[in-house]
Amino acid sequence: xxxRQRLTARRLEAxxxxxxxxxxxxxxxxxxxxxxxxxxxxxxxxxxxxxxxINADQARVEAVLSSAADRLAGWxxxxxxxxxxxxxYLDVAQAAAGTVGWAGSTVVITxxxxxxxxxxxxxxxxxxxxxxxxxxxxxxxxxPRTLQKITVKVTTPSGSYxxxxxxxxxxxxxxxxx
Length: 178
What we know:
This protein is of the alpha+beta class. It has helices spanning 2-17, 24-74, 89-95, and strands at residues 107-115, 124-125, 148-155, 162-169.
């Protein structure tokens, strides 16, 4: 009996001091508010991480595209690039994917066109041969269709972003001054 009186007395003192604890409704409301605020914070964090990943992929595509264009511009002119095996324009362009650690298959050459100065309506032809079909391996600086327009396309490994660029090459060799 005495124990019961002491507990009751302690409870009365606790109520007077304001240490009565929390009700179930107060605890549930606090947990719901904490959950809602946590969900909004984590949702925002997810969006920031996802956006950062997209921007990083776009930057890598631009870096590979720039590297491929530089490599193609510095590579030796090839009159029949589709017919050449190892060392073709595609091999050179695909080597640029290694600058960001991607597989070479992320870089493709979608088309190669040849400038035809004699045509006003369609100045870019599908062949370098003036007769219209086939490839002329003897194209030189003095013959028509020495300019090549090479379209390079780079796609992220996930396939989420791609971009293409056109590189124009020529067979004009600068004169050596002695």
